[in-house]
Amino acid sequence: MTKHTLLLAAALGLFAGALAPQADARIAPRPTGVIGVDSNQLTPDYWIDRQRQADRVVLDRGAIALQNRELQQTDPSMHDVEGLPAELDAARVREWIEDLSSRPQRQLYDVQGKPVTGKAIDGYIAALNLKAIPKTQKTRYGLVVHRAALRTFPTTTRVFSSDDDTDIDRFQESALFPGTPVAIVHESGDGEWLFVVSERYAAWIEKQYVAEGSKTQVFGYARKVPYLVVTGAKVRTTFTPDLPAVSDLQLDMGIRVPVLRDWPGTRPVNGQAAYASHVVELPVRNDDGSLRIVPALLPRTADVSADYLPLTRANLIRQAFKFLGERYGWGHSYGTRDCSGFVSEVYRSFGVQLPRNTSAQSVSPALNRLAFDAGDSREKRMDAASELQVGDLVYIPGHVMMVIGHDNGMPYVIHDTNGGSWLGPDGELVRGRLNGVSVTPLTPLRFNASQTYVDRMTNIQRIRP
């Protein structure tokens, strides 16, 4: 290298150094308006850097498989769909439906804020078509082909608890995702809805979103290898006018889809060369309602993994923060999720199964549960709060939060909430209206003007050996 070249290289190095950010630079935190939270705390690295052995595996694949098996065997909220008998009797089908679709006992309101009439309720009950349940029926199976709502009654009509609320639809139960196996056990009076039993929920789904196949087809798809796991909050398949059923399809965190790794790169899929994409297999519904499995494209830029992620504290925090700021969606409304759906999908990206609702999650016998009752002292509750670990699930009536660490002498949580309240400097209750996936300290949050979240803790569930 000549002397001239050395001088030029040195000059370029100094120039690059002047442009490069300093490694020890700190961005001054900015207030957020939420109690105890500044802008630096809204990044996953802030919390990961505070952990000891952040990358140590908490539960390995074998331990996760054992826990999932115990969940299936011991948790009454779970359904062994594949293990259903070859024939179902009327009493069992009726019990599933009536457990969910009972006549509302409180006044409900429509989207205009008008009371839902008794006549309208009679129509929803009649649509259940209970008299048509046969004495016995062959157990039928299907795969969900599109993210679809699960409903209390076979209707898309939205109803609410008060005349000034048009957000939380009380007929919205949950959602099912593409590739989910279900048992098809009944049909609505108009023939447009199916009552299905999935692993975690039994409810009404629009018939157009379920493709019926043999038991072998349905569960063969669910077990097919190799596969990809969605590790982003959500990804979308490539748009294609050639096959609209798999065009721009939303796949949420933790969904597992078979992948065709040997597909020739120059061979088109739905009118597009495959070399820049993953070729995955997805279920579609034929015109006669039957199941067909077809190839579809998922961009290589999509946030997916060749397997479930290792369950570590760092990964728990990273996965949860991928939802930060997403709007709250009761029962998976708005293409998003609610509090229990949020923690379920974070853990699903590691292969960990959880019950669907907070009422079942909080008491599940398959997890490491610390229970509280009304007689427990505040001191006991605060001691438990001080010992919370990353990934712990904290339950209050109707809500769940995931712990991300401790800071400023307080445990912090990330949670999908439509509320959030605390006391302001004047001692008055501040209603934060967070209405999305949010980071907050746990201890200042208020259940009401006189009680904190800690006062109302019902359970802590720890996903640990």
TrEMBL record:
Q: Which InterPro entries match?
A: NLP_P60_dom, P60_peptidase_YkfC, Papain-like_cys_pep_sf, Peptidase_C40, SH3b1_dom
Q: Which residues form the NlpC/P60 domain?
A: 310-464
- Name of one Pfam family that matches: SH3_6
What are the transmembrane regions?
Answer: none
List the keywords (alphabetical).
Answer: Hydrolase, Protease, Signal, Thiol protease
PROSITE patterns this protein is in? NLPC_P60 (PS51935)
Family named by the database record: Belongs to the peptidase C40 family.
Q: What name goes with this protein?
A: SH3 domain-containing protein
